[in-house]
Amino acid sequence: MIIAYNKTQMAMKYDVFISYSSLDQKVAEGVCAYLEQHRIRCFIAYRDIPKGVVWAKYIVEALDESRMMVVVFSGNLNCSEQVDREIELASESRKPILTFRISNENFKGAKKYYLKNLNWIDAFPQPEKCFGTLCENVKRLLDNRQETIEKNNEVIIHDYAKEFDKNPTEAKAQADLAWHYYEGNGVKKDFSMAFYWCHKAAEQGYLHAQCNLGTFYMSGIGVEKDLSKAVYWLRKAAEQGYALSQYNLATFYQSGNGIGQDLTQAIYWYKKAAKQGYADAQKELRNLGETW
């Protein structure tokens, strides 16, 4: 399929690369869940790097394929040399960097060099209450970057379908291909093909694909609607800590569709998602008179 697109962005798989200390993973997961809830594609290492592969190779590739970086900053991050390298690569590539400060610590070492004079968001002591502000600023930076790219780069005609593997075997590549078919990005929009490749990735244990597959079955996208299978795949991802799946599973328990109504289980899964900063889960808990 021949389409018009921007050469600089043709290989961009992600909108945001999330850089964080492993000690702050829970907050980073919440950031990721909130941004993806608002249709911002994220790379986050714990989820998107397959086990047993060369870590550095995937980090470099993911940074190349991301439009900007969000840094989840705390005192823990100051001690991470790995993050220094990530920030350095993003800076060399002139990618926008937005720092999300979750503790009142000063930038030290390389972080001071790279981050002190950039914009940041103070999100302490309750980072989840600032996810909305973060999301708004990320969207603004992405929009500004797109405008800059369009002004400074020639828009060309290209066969975008040739830019990605059409028969991948690795789970993440399968999930990416499913997204292309779902969005009609570089190929003709085809929900049945989106379902096919999403299913392939989900069977390999890819969390994002398992969550999406549950949604496909729930809504009848590219496949006959099947609530029992929707619950099956949502539970798989939910039990591994995926916030969006936890929220969707909770809605099933609350409504009773396909699973049998169980308010106790609904609250349990809403709380799991809410603790990761998932705004809709927090709203449902408030409506139910519950805290998290």
Describe the structure.
This protein has 14 helices and seven strands. Helix 1 crosses helix 7 and helix 9 packs across helix 10. The chain starts with a strand and ends in a 5-residue tail after the last helix. It has two domains: 151 residues, Rossmann fold (3-Layer(aba) Sandwich), CATH 3.40.50.10140; 125 residues, Serine Threonine Protein Phosphatase 5, Tetratricopeptide repeat, CATH 1.25.40. With 292 residues, the protein is α/β, with parallel strands linked by helices. It has a five-stranded parallel sheet with strand order 3-2-4-5-6, sandwiched between helices.
Output the keywords.
alpha/beta; Serine Threonine Protein Phosphatase 5, Tetratricopeptide repeat; 2 domains; two-stranded antiparallel sheet; 14 helices; 12% strand; disordered N terminus
Helices and strands, with pairings:
Blueprint: E1 2-6, E2 14-19, H1 25-37, E3 42-43, H2 45-48, H3 55-64, E4 66-73, H4 75-78, H5 81-92, E5 97-101, H6 110-115, E6 120-122, H7 131-152, E7 155-159, H8 171-183, H9 191-203, H10 207-219, H11 227-238, H12 243-255, H13 263-274, H14 279-287
Helix pairs in contact: 1-7, 8-9, 9-10, 10-11, 11-12, 12-13, 13-14
Could you give a short description of this structure?
The protein has 292 residues and is of the alpha/beta class. The chain has helices at residues 25-37, 45-48, 55-64, 75-78, 81-92, 110-115, 131-152, 171-183, 191-203, 207-219, 227-238, 243-255, 263-274, 279-287, and strands at residues 2-6, 14-19, 42-43, 66-73, 97-101, 120-122, 155-159.
